């Protein structure tokens, strides 16, 4: 599959680097509004640079487009890409509204395409083990899921950076960071039924919103919580509690740091065991899984319903945080 990456900022370049060893996806083109500073990167990765999305949409040699642009641009650009007959892989979040997500998913279905989504966290060995244990019933009845994944990478950005602007990050760091967590919870216990959220700025000199707290209700009385802080050093913890035990995953760094994850597994007698799981190229795993699905070789693990539900949750979080933490029902 020959692909173009749209948006050659930090993450767009990371995607190209992660895909370098792939024999399933070859990135041949890159598109960015500012290509002057990309000459060395393009040379190192044998990229043809363009400044206009239409240049790749009209190119018959390109099979797919990988979208890594500011969040508020996703919907319009995604629909352009699909209408041009190109397979689409979109970085998260797919859209900022559930209506926008539905329009994209409907367009994908109409073309009989497979939508790729940038939730590579589900491919992390530790989280794959959590999902396996939950689905196998090893934890018994699931009672509660919680996560706190925070870092201060955004705090070092200029206030003019799109990643900290309300237009592209209406739920603060959760817009780009916490949506991985809600996606994972949806894969574990389904879509939440109710959401309550609070966002704010604790540090006066913080760039954008630096605190997001979310409470989630799921079916069968399961509860959940998500916290994202953007002015503290890296912290990553995901815990799933069940009637027969619990599992906690502690992460030592961001996905691009290449550090192992630590797991604590506790049984019904409160006996604990520990595992250390090495980092792996989860970005490559996600993309190649998508490429296999496009080729009809496998089923992609992210269903359209799950992708849509995650945007419903994001939209509810934004609404709740903008309306005095009002409880929002998801239908």
Automatic annotation (TrEMBL):
Q: Specify the superkingdom.
A: Bacteria
For this UniProt entry, the molecular function terms from Gene Ontology, in alphabetical order, are: nucleotide binding
Every GFO/IDH/MocA-like oxidoreductase domain range: 129-248
SUPFAM superfamilies documented for this protein: Glyceraldehyde-3-phosphate dehydrogenase-like, C-terminal domain (SSF55347), NAD(P)-binding Rossmann-fold domains (SSF51735)
Gene3D superfamilies for the chain: Dihydrodipicolinate Reductase, domain 2, NAD(P)-binding Rossmann-like Domain
Chain ranges of the Gfo/Idh/MocA-like oxidoreductase N-terminal domain? 1-119
Q: What parts of the sequence cross the membrane? A: none
- PANTHER family, per the entry: BILIVERDIN REDUCTASE A
In Swiss-Prot or TrEMBL terms, this protein is called Predicted dehydrogenase
Give the species this sequence originates from.
Polynucleobacter kasalickyi
Q: What is the lineage of its organism?
A: Bacteria, Pseudomonadati, Pseudomonadota, Betaproteobacteria, Burkholderiales
């Amino acid at each position: 599959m020959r692909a173009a990456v749209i948006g050659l900022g930090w993450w767009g370049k990371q995607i190209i680097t992660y895909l370098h060893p792939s024999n399933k996806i070859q990135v041949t083109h890159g598109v960015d509004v500012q290509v002057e500073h990309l000459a060395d990167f393009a040379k190192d990765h044998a990229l043809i640079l363009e400044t206009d999305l239409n240049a790749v949409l009209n190119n018959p040699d390109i099979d797919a487009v990988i979208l890594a642009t500011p969040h508020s641009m996703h919907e319009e650009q995604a629909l352009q890409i699909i209408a041009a007959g190109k397979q689409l892989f979109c970085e998260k979040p797919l859209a900022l509204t559930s209506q926008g997500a539905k329009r994209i998913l409907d367009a994908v279905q109409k073309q009989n395409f497979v939508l790729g989504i940038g939730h590579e966290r589900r491919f992390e060995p530790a989280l794959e083990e959590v999902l396996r244990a939950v689905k196998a019933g090893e934890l018994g009845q699931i009672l509660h899921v919680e996560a706190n994944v925070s870092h201060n990478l955004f705090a070092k950005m200029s206030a003019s950076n799109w990643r900290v602007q309300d237009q592209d990050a209406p739920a603060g760091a959760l817009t780009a960071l916490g949506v991985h967590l809600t996606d994972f919870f949806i894969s574990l216990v389904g879509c939440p039924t109710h959401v309550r959220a609070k966002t704010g700025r604790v540090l006066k000199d913080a760039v954008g919103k630096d605190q997001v707290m979310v409470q989630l209700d799921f079916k069968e009385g399961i509860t959940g919580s998500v916290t994202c802080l953007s002015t503290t050093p890296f912290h990553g913890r995901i815990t799933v509690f069940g009637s027969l035990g619990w599992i906690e995953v502690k992460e030592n760094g961001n996905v691009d740091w290449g550090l192992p994850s630590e797991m604590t597994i506790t049984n019904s007698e409160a006996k604990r065991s520990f595992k250390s799981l090495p980092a792996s190229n989860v970005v490559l795993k996600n993309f190649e899984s998508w490429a296999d699905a496009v080729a009809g070789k496998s089923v992609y693990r992210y269903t359209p319903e799950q992708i849509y539900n995650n945007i419903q949750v994001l939209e509810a979080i934004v609404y709740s945080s903008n309306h005095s933490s009002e409880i929002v029902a998801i239908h």
